[in-house]
Each structure stands twice: as C-alpha cells, then as structure tokens.
Amino acid sequence: MDEEQGVIGQCIDDDDVPDEWLKPKKAIRIAISGDVHITSIEREIIDTPEFQRLRFIKQLGPTYLVFPTALHSRFDHSLGTLKVADDMIRFIRENRHSKKGEFSITAVQVVLIHLYALLHDITHIPFGHTLEDELCIFDRHDNANSDRFDHFLGSRSTIGNIIINKFGRYVYDRFIKICKTNKNNINDLGMDAFIYDMISNTVCADLLDYLRRDCFFCGLNTSMDYRFLNFLYLYNSGTSKRLVIRLWKERDTHARKDLISELLRLLDNRYLLAEVVYYHHAKLIAGTMIAGAVQRYKNRINEKALWSMGDVDLVQALLNLNNVESELIESFKNRILWKCIFEFTRADVAAMKEGTIEDIFSNIKEDWYKGADNRMVVEDDLAEALLMKPGDVLIYCTDKDMNMKLAKMLVLWEKEPKELKDCDMGRTIKAKRDAICDSHRALWAVKVFINPKYSEDEERKNLIILAMEYLLEYNEKEKERKEKEYYSKLVKYIINKNSRNKGMGVSEYENITKDIVEHIVSRKNIDKRIKDIVTYVKEYLSENEERK
Question: Which CATH superfamily groups domain 1-218?
Fold first, then answer.
C-alpha cells in the first residue's frame, strides 16, 4: 500500500480500520511478560535492522559488571512495554467505575499506543542513559535530537515508510506528534494526550515493564503487584484526555487507603531499584569510565556512527584507538574500576552559607551536569598538573531531579486530577511519601574517580579534593579562602616536581610560592585553567633561574 492508498487511515470514524491493523499474527515469548502478541505490521517493524539493533543494547548499560545477569536488552524491554500497554488498554476498558467517555479508546488510538510502546526506545544509542541522561555527552535520545529522530522515525526512514504505507499519513502524523511531545506540552495532543501518559509519563508502560524486568535480572526479590491498574480511567478536561488513577472514592468522599498503599509501594520499589542498582557506586564508576572514553572520542567521529552500533561495537571501536580511550575501555572491560576519592552531596549544598539551594543547583546543573566539556577540561587539567594522564581523573554529576517523576502521577483527588505529591493525604501517609521522595533526592552527588594506581597517593588525592571543594564553593568568602589554599598547595606541588627547584632555599621557596599565588588569585573574572597555571609556574621558575 503506497502513501496515496494509505488514505484509509484518514477515516472519519477512528474505529473503522482494516483487520490487519490490530489482528494478532504472532506471539513472541519473553521473560517476565510471557507471550507478547504482535500484528503482521508490527512484525514488519520489528524485523527492520533499526529495531533488531536493540537486541545489542543492554537495558542497564554497564550494570552487568555489578549484577552479572543484568544482560536484558532494549529489544526485550520494547516488547515488554507493548505487553504492558495492551494490559493497560484492557484495564481501562474494563473499569466498572468509569462512565462511557472515561473508558473509550478508538481502534486508531490502539494502533498509536502499540506503535509508541514498541518504538519508544528506537533512537537509543549504546550506553544511552549513561551518555545522555546521566552525563550529557550527547543530546537525549528523544525528539531533542532531531537528526537522530529523523533517521529512525522520519518520513523517509525505513520504519517511517512502513507506518505511512500501512496506516497512511493520518496515523503517521498523529504518531509523530505523540513522539515529539514532552511533559510541558502534553495537552497539545488533545484527545491523544493519554497515549503519551500511558507510555512515557509517570505510571506508564515503560516504567511498569522496566521495574519488573530490571528487578528480575538483577536478582531483587520485590513485590510488584500492579493492582492499581484496575483503577485507571481517562479524564476528559474538554480540551484533552489524560490518564488518571481513580484514587478518590466519589460515593463515600474519601481516598482509597489500600490504593494509596499500592502507589506508595510503587514509589518505594522505584527508590529501591535506584539505590541498589541504578546508583550503585561501582555501576556509576563503570558508566563514568565509558562516558570519559566517549567524551574524548566524540570530537573525532560523527555521532551518526553510533546509530548503527550496539554496546559491543562501541567498546571495540574505543579499544581500537590505542590511546586514552582504549586504556579507559581496557580497564572497563577487565573490571579494573577507578576509585572514588571525593563526594559532594545534597547535604553539602544545603550547608552553603550564601544563596538559595535552587540557585546553587542551577549553577551546578550548568557547570557540572550539562557541562560535559567543562568537566573534561577540569579532569584533564587536574591530571596534567599532577603528572597523570588524561582520563586518570573523572568527574560524575547527574541531574538533581533524578527519577522523581513518579511522585507526579495523576490521581483523582476530591473530584479533580492532582499530582500525587500535591494530595493532602494526612500526616502519616504524607510523611511516608515525603520520606521516599527525600531518599531519592539524597542519592544525588558530584563524585570524583581516579585511576586506582594513584589511589594510595595522598598528596595527589588531597590536591584533587581541594580543587573540587574550591570549584564547587558558591559562597563568595569561602570561595576566596579555598581558592588561596588550593593554589598555594598546587603551586608548591608544581615547584617540588620541577627540576629548577634544586638548591632553592626555604625562604626563597616560600617567597616564590607567595608571589605566584598572589598573581593567580589577583586575576579576577579570568578563567583560571589549571593548565595555564602550570605553564605560568614553569615560566616563572625559568625566569627566576635566569635572573640568578
């Protein structure tokens, strides 16, 4: 069926669709989900090289270095998400508490749900969450990366062509609009807004599948009863239709306490997975090593090269370079992990004596989370100053709002949809909910990792710690003090390691150190790159020798 013939997708009645659009043709059996039923069109999409590539991208990236059986792929997860989405459709349609408009999902909307569930991760690259979400080496895999999005789902892509030829432009355009939606413009989807909610928002098929799948393959024995799915319904605001959990018992005008407990357990399980798996210290180090290699590699390749790679392909490409990247990856491959020597936590931010916490986090976000290039400059400048190699020092920083979206799930509360975090549930329940959310936030930290061969070198370690304490200080007076302390010790280190220091008396040594530090500190509003300071110290020593 070509695009011209595909106009059947433009029917006025969204329930008037050909059988092949929804009739199952094959069952694929996978762990956790059991049989996943797919149509002939979905099978055609799955059989494309673009989709098959997902078999070679691990769902949890480098986590297998900590949990050896965490080898499941984005291919498995995509099929699992489709299964959960199908279950959610059934629960919504069978919800006996709902009125007519609250359970109505058209045939075309079912097609859109299936497509979005199946393809929600199609644009992922190897180690995608590490390289995009955690350390911002590349733009996110979603619509923020327009070139990559067009490559996988654009109208001229293999999958885009299948959708257009089989379903027509009408369905394709609606599908693309859903894919290009984000949490800030959901309501622009109108009556299709619930589809975004169902696959990508808070209590969604994506999350419900990966919670069970990740726990299973990491060997975590957690209770995952999704009984709350019985209370899903579609809330029509007049301009859009949203997916909501019926938490409020309208007839008796009170909340369903058993359902609240179910949702709090979901929040708790998500936190457990974050604490034990996603933010496990060894997993973070391994991910930072991968990111460190890719960050130094990316300037010499086109990002498009990653679009056809799996995890093993990327690791091998880095190993073949025979330089900094290959050394980092060789250590990663052999599980020789860097050591953590510094940690800056949310409690450290709260202890700052100047500025609001939000202002400080805003600076950290720009300088350290989103500032991947800035991190690499600091890493390699520190390494060079301390006679280490590029990549021997690595900095980790992630988003302060990490994994908090579950608290924003929409629930019916006193006749209106509200986010769970905003519901007045009583002191005891509120305390439990807030404690879980606070535990999530407490996982945030800026960390520094170093090559283990330097892990016993206290002088180097202390200088790196001083540098980070200075760079992460946002109180003006404290920053001035830490700046002077850090540069004094750095200059002394450089002088001591410089051959021109031989024969220098104690008084001369102290005077030279004082002169250099005062010069550096006096350079207000100038980017004081450590690399430039090393050069300046060496030039100063050379000139001092000539004056003698």
Answer: Hypothetical protein af1432 (1.10.3210.10)
